[in-house]
Design a protein that fits this description.
There is one protein chain. The chain folds into 2 domains: about 55-300, ABC transporter involved in vitamin B12 uptake, BtuC, CATH 1.10.3470; about 305-339. The protein is built from 13 helices and 2 strands. The chain has helices at about 1-35, 40-65, 75-95, 100-125, 135-150, 160-170, 175-195, 195-205, 210-215, 220-245, 255-265, 280-295, 300-335, and strands at about 170, 175. Strands 1-2 form a two-stranded antiparallel ribbon. Helix 2 crosses helix 11, helix 2 (about 40-65) crosses helix 12 and helix 11 (about 255-265) packs across helix 12. The longest helix has about 35 residues, at about 300-335. It is globular and about 65 Å long. It starts with a helix and ends with a helix. The relative contact order is 0.18. One of its GO terms (molecular function) is transmembrane transporter activity.
Length: about 350
C-alpha cells in the first residue's frame, strides 16, 4: 500500500509536466504529418532550439516572481538594457575588432550586473516601499524603456565581434550554445526552488505570506533576492538576444512580456503564488516554439498563432480547475485525511 501511495503521489506532483510532454509530442506528430518533408528534420528541430532560449529565460524570470505572488513586467526592458550595455561597451572598445575573450567575459558580466541592478530596483520597491509588484514593475518597465531610448535615440546598436556572436549562432554537438545556456539557467533555478532554503521560503511567501511571517521568514529579504535573480535571468536573456540578433535595440521583443506570462502559467506557475514548476516552464517554452515553427512552415497567419496560444492556455487552465477537486480528494486518501 505504501508503494502504491508513493507512485500515486509522484504521479500527482508530475501530472502537469506529463501533460506538457504529451502536448509537445502531439504537436510534433501533427505537424510532422502535415509537413513530412520539412518539419521532422534535424535542421528544423535545431531551429526550434535556437528560438527557445530568449523567451524561455524571460519566462523563468517571470515564473520565479509569480511563485512569490508577484510579477515582473520589466523583464523585457531589463533584457534590452543588458543587451545595450554589451553593445555600448563593445562599440567603445572598437566594435568588431574587440575580439579578446577577456572583453567577452567582462562585458557579459557588466550586462548581468545591469540586469541585477534593475532587479534590485524592483526588489526595493516591492519589499521595502511595499508597492504592488504589478504597479512597481509596470513603472520600472517604462523607466527602463525610457533610459534605453534616451541612450540610443531609439536606434538599434551594432558592432559585435564574432567572439560575442558565437554565443548566439554556435553549436556544440549540434545543440545551440544559447539553448545550453538556457538549460543551465533552468537547472540553476530548479536547484534554488527545489533544493535550497531560499526556494522553500519563496514558495511559502507566495502560498501564505502571513504564515511565512509568523514562521520567522524574512519576507523582505526573500522578495529582494527573488527580484535580483529575476533581473539576473533577464540579463542573461539580453546577452542571448544581442548575440542572436547581432544587434541591441531599445524596443526589442514588444510582445514578449505577455508571452512570458503565458509560458509561466502554461508551465504550471500559479498566478496567485505558492506553486511553480521549472520543468513545466521549460516544456511550455518548447511547446509554444514547436507550435510557432509548425504555423510558420504551414504559412499560417501569426495572428492565428496568438489565438492558438490563448486557446492552449485556456484549455490547460480549465483542465487544471476541473481536476483540482479530484486531486484534493486523492491527496486526502493518500495522506489519510478526508478530501
Amino acid at each position: 500500500m505504501t508503494g502504491v501511495r508513493t507512485v500515486a503521489g509522484v504521479a500527482l506532483r508530475n501530472a502537469h509536466v506529463t501533460r506538457l510532454v504529451a502536448l509537445t509530442l502531439l504537436l510534433v506528430v501533427v505537424f510532422s504529418a502535415l509537413a513530412p518533408r520539412v518539419f521532422p528534420t534535424a535542421l528544423n528541430f535545431q531551429s526550434i532550439a535556437y528560438s527557445v532560449p530568449e523567451i524561455g529565460l524571460l519566462a523563468l524570470a517571470m515564473a520565479l516572481t509569480m511563485i512569490t505572488g508577484g510579477i515582473d513586467l520589466s523583464v523585457v526592458a531589463t533584457a534590452n538594457l543588458a543587451a545595450l550595455t554589451t553593445a555600448g561597451l563593445y562599440i567603445a572598445a572598437g566594435g568588431e575588432t574587440a575580439t579578446s575573450p577577456l572583453l567577452l567575459v567582462a562585458f557579459c558580466a557588466a550586462a548581468l550586473l545591469v540586469g541585477m541592478a534593475c532587479g534590485a530596483v524592483n526588489g526595493l520597491l516591492v519589499s521595502r516601499v511595499r508597492v504592488s509588484p504589478i504597479l512597481a514593475t509596470l513603472a520600472t518597465m517604462q523607466i527602463f524603456n525610457g533610459i534605453a531610448i534616451l541612450w540610443t535615440d531609439g536606434e538599434a546598436q551594432y558592432g559585435f565581434p564574432d567572439t560575442f556572436l558565437w554565443l548566439g549562432d554556435a553549436t556544440i554537438a549540434y545543440v545551440p550554445v544559447a539553448f545550453l545556456i538556457f538549460i543551465g539557467a533552468a537547472l540553476l533555478i530548479w536547484h534554488i526552488v527545489s533544493r535550497t532554503g531560499l526556494g522553500t521560503r519563496i514558495v511559502l511567501v507566495g502560498a501564505n505570506p502571513v504564515a511565512a511571517r509568523y514562521s520567522g521568514v524574512d519576507e523582505r529579504g526573500v522578495l529582494m533576492r527573488t527580484y535580483l535573480i529575476s533581473g539576473l535571468l533577464a540579463g542573461i536573456a539580453g546577452i542571448v538576444i544581442a548575440a542572436k540578433s547581432t544587434s541591441a535595440s531599445p524596443d526589442y521583443g514588444g510582445s514578449y512580456v505577455l508571452l512570458a506570462i503565458v509560458i509561466a502559467v502554461l508551465g504550471g506557475t500559479d498566478p496567485f503564488g505558492g506553486r511553480g514548476s521549472v520543468a513545466g516552464v521549460v516544456l511550455a517554452a518548447i511547446a509554444l516554439q514547436v507550435l510557432a515553427s509548425g504555423f510558420n512552415i504551414m504559412r499560417l497567419s501569426p495572428f492565428l498563432y496568438q489565438i492558438a496560444q490563448g486557446l492552449i492556455l485556456l484549455v490547460v487552465m480549465v483542465v487544471e480547475l476541473r481536476r483540482g477537486r479530484l486531486l484534493e480528494r486523492l491527496r486526502g486518501l493518500l495522506t489519510g485525511r478526508p478530501g
